Amino acid sequence: MSQRSANTSTSGHLDWVDGTRTVAALAVVLLHAAASAVTDRSLLGSSGWWAANVFDAATRWCVPVFVMLSGALLLVPSKAGESWRDFYRRRFVRVLIPLVFWSLFYLAYDLCWVLDRGGEADWLFMLHQTLIGMPYFHLWFLFMLPGLYLVTPLLRQILTVLCRKQLAVLCAGLLALAIANKFFTLWRGDGPPFAGVLFVPFIGYYLAGYLLATGSRDSRWPWPTLIASIIITALGCGWLAGQGKLNAGTYFYDYFSITTVPAGLAAFALCLRLPKLRLFGWIAPVSFGVYLIHPMWLDLLWQNDLRPTTLHPALAIPLLAMFAFVVSGLLAWLILRVPGVRRVV
């Protein structure tokens, strides 16, 4: 089969890309809408907790899919001749402006809540959170991306000399090391790493995106793998939570757990089959903005007592997620139309 995607329009646009951005962004919002109910110990064992657990388990593939999408688009051999300087100039500007803007925005947002409640600014804590890539919980993704961009030109050169079998072995080895590292850090119990090394475990996903996008479309394995991974994730977390070990149970949610890695690979393989739809074409340009903005809307809903537990979580979670998704998308769409500001989304 040609290295070119089988699902490519005559204009050269990869039809599945817009769909992938759209469904992954929606999955991120669903995941974050469900998270607070999963960690609410007063709900443990209830049908509401299990509903939140299933939503969370069913969407954990979202970030791996975003990383694999980047790998599929940026590691193509046709771009191997692009100068490192040109690549860095384009990609770093694309990510560093949003990183700085939204880091400052969310630090200020959190500080306003603290001061409004009579607290004091903890500048040391704010610095610490920034150094580990979490001025707000979701912004670690922006701190991780520059590392992947840093090694992209080198990876392109490596791909020109590796056959697909060698690449598959390298990719599998990197993902296996990431899984082993997660087990080790759970046992060791250390805190989060410096933001500058967040990208390292994700190189396996990055390469997997290229590998899957340029390979054959095997229809047999993705659905069974994804469904089995979701079920085991939900049951594994549920079983440990029932033993009074909820913190240990959330291991299954990690992006490098033994269940999330196959779920991510399977979900991306399925995304490669997504058709070109007008709806995807509308949403994809604001998907990055949705990722950046939606936690603020979820938090504002939380602060006004509109939470996953306001109704039964099976109903409340999708309603909250859809509201945050739509409002964030509209705000991102407006920002894109303001000259001088559009680069922040």
Explain briefly what this protein structure is.
The chain contains 14 helices and no strands. The protein has helices at 15-38, 47-59, 62-74, 84-116, 123-131, 140-159, 164-188, 203-213, 222-242, 246-249, 260-271, 278-283, 287-303, 313-336.
Fold and architecture overview:
This protein is mainly alpha-helical and about 350 residues long. It has one domain (about 15-345). The chain contains 14 helices and no strands. It has helices at about 15-40, 45-60, 60-75, 85-115, 125-130, 140-160, 165-190, 205-215, 220-240, 245-250, 260-270, 280-285, 285-305, 315-335. Helix 1 (about 15-40) packs parallel to helix 13 (about 285-305), helix 2 (about 45-60) crosses helix 9 (about 220-240) and helix 4 runs antiparallel to helix 6. The chain is globular and about 55 Å long.
